[in-house]
Each structure stands twice: as structure tokens, then as C-alpha cells.
Write a structure and sequence with these properties.
Blueprint lengths: L1 H17 L8 E5 L4 H17 L2 E5 L8 H13 L1
Parallel strand pairs: 1-2
């Protein structure tokens, strides 16, 4: 399984670099809901931050619209950060 993850990482790095989506020295803000997509994105960017020469920050807004579920997501993003 590690081989597939390494291939994904290399392809994603090529994509980001090839399109100039992140520039060395940049700060990248990940808007994290606490769901799977934003969690994977934050984890990936943190794992390649040194290679891309970027700084990764995570932001989350708890609108408190879904009670305990909102609280859990906010707590999870805090742990992730």
C-alpha cells in the first residue's frame, strides 16, 4: 500500500509545482471542516510542506449549527492542527 501512497504524493507534488499553485516561502491556509476531504488535504500538505518549502496553517469556523456534531468537528480540527 505504501507504494500507491508514494506514487500519489509524487503525482500531487508534480501537479502543484507544474501549475505554480504553491510557491516556496508561501503560507498555505487550509479551511478544515473536520470532514474527510479537508482532513486528508491538511495531512497531505503538512507531510510535504518541507519539500514544497511552505508553511501550513489550519482554520476552522464552528458556526454551532449542528449541536454536538459541530463541537466534535471543532475538537477534531484542534487535534489535527
Amino acid at each position: 500500500m505504501r507504494g500507491a501512497a508514494d506514487r500519489f504524493q509524487q503525482e500531487a507534488l508534480r501537479f502543484l509545482r507544474g501549475r505554480g499553485l504553491v510557491k516556496p516561502g508561501s503560507k498555505v491556509l487550509v479551511a478544515a471542516s473536520g470532514g474527510l476531504d479537508s482532513t486528508v488535504l491538511a495531512d497531505f500538505l503538512a507531510s510535504v510542506a518541507r519539500l514544497l518549502e511552505i508553511e501550513v496553517e489550519i482554520a476552522h469556523v464552528d458556526h454551532r449549527t449542528r449541536g454536538l456534531a459541530s463541537e466534535r468537528e471543532a475538537s477534531w480540527v484542534g487535534v489535527l492542527a
